[in-house]
Each structure stands twice: as C-alpha cells, then as structure tokens.
Amino acid sequence: MFFILSKIIDFFLQPLCWIFILLGVAYFSKYTKRLILVTLGALILCSNGWFVNQCYLAYESPQVKLTQNYQWCIILGGGMMRAGEGYRTGETADRFIQPLLLYKKGIVKKLLITGGNVNIKGLKIDETQESKKVEEVLIAMGVKPEDIVLEESARNTHENAVYTKQMLKPYLKEKMVLVTSAMHMPRAKACYIKEGFIVDDFPADIKKKDTPSGILDLVIPQERNLGKFAELIREMAGYVIYKIVGFA
Predict the structure, then answer these.
(1) Dist CA 201 CA 199 (whole Å)
(2) Is beta strand 148-151 parallel, antiparallel or unpaired with respect to 108-114?
(3) How many whole angstroms separate alpha carbon 61 and alpha carbon 18?
(4) CB contact set of 103 (below 8 Å; sequence gap of 6+)
(5) Mean pLDDT per 10-residue run, the chain (248 residues)?
(6) pTM, two decimal places
(7) Strands of 175-179's sheet, edge to edge?
(8) CB 203 within 8 A of CB 63
(9) Nearest CA to 199 among 57, 47, 72, 85?
(10) DSSP label of 124
(11) 3-class DSSP state for residue 77?
C-alpha cells in the first residue's frame, strides 16, 4: 500500500501539476489575472537553469574519494536500464559504471545490485529486468560472475535496505560502499544506517553543475529544467516522508 501511495503522491509533487491546478483555480476565481501572473512566475522559476542548479547544489551529496578497500559495494537500482530488447542504458547508468570502475581498481571486491520490478497492476508496467541486465553488462565488462549478487524483490529505497540487510547480515559490522544517484543519496544512506549498516557513500549520476552559469542559463527557460526540478522535489518529499514513517 505504501508503494502505491508513494507513486500517487509523486503525481501531485510535479511542478506541471501545480501549474495546471493554478490555471484551473484561476479560471473560476475572481482573481484570474493575479493567479495567472503567479502561474507564469512559477513556470519561469521552475524552468530557470540557474535556479534549478542552485537547488541541486544545496541538496545533492558531494563527490568523494574513497581511501580504503571494501568487501561489498551496494548498488541501488532505478533507471539504469531501459525496457526493450538488448541492452539500453538509462539515465542513471552511472550507478553501475562507477562501481565497475571501483571494482576494476580493486577498491571493492563484490557488487550487490538491489532493485526489483515496480509493476503496479493497472497503473504501471515495468518489464525492464534491470538488475539482471546490469549483471550481464558487468560480466561482459570483465566482472567475475561470482562477484555479483542480485536482490530482485525491493521496490523502493526502504525495501532496498531491508532486503539487502537479510542478504548481508554476516557482514554488517564491516564498512560497505553505497552507490546511488547523488540526489537520492541522502535518503538512501539514512535508510541503510537505520537498518544497521556502516556505509561510505559514493554518489553517482551527479546532476549539479559546479562551473559558473552563462547568460543563457540565467535568462532562457528550458523544459528540461522542469523535469529536473520535479525529480528533486519528489526526492526531497520522499526523504521527509521516510523520516516521518520511520524508514530513515
């Protein structure tokens, strides 16, 4: 039930949803002009590259350099592969590219990939088989099959931590590397610590821009920024909800 509710809440956290609601209210309100101005202001702000980047700079986990070797690296799934025949990498493919590099350097010995399908009957269809496909790609890139472990039941970050704990219980006293998107890392790390893990976080899929913004970023609205801002808002809301229900 929590999983289904979280997906419904996601819809109402999207800036475009807010804008449509504001336009609907404006249509029936006597303050139509004022509400339209508010809507335009919200649209301009949420599509502004500089503003969205500042939000990411404030929230995303910073890049780190690992200074020791580890037995286990935990990789959180979600968006690493796209559905379809063959191997189509997704927007968050960096979540398995960075662990692959750590493995190749000898910093980590084993990779655990956690994340199952997220089918919701009648609402969402997921035929990606992400964990299995990532495993096959990693093996093709030189990772030994015996060094990869799959956890394919988890549907959200809380379940990632719970089911991973069941598999790695003998190793809980060891420090492990946790890899997920930089934006997702604060919630993920809090969940794993809550379950008793000792982790060093290694953010991947970093979206923030550390270099100075140009004039175009400051003045030209872009639709892609709406999507980035929506992702961040949902993630921040997810962190708050996890704290409230005791998952993090």
Answers:
(1) 6
(2) parallel
(3) 27
(4) 73, 109, 111, 143, 147
(5) 60 72 79 83 88 94 92 95 84 96 97 77 61 94 97 93 96 97 97 97 93 75 88 92 93
(6) 0.85
(7) 148-151, 108-114, 70-76, 175-179, 198-201
(8) yes
(9) 72
(10) B
(11) coil
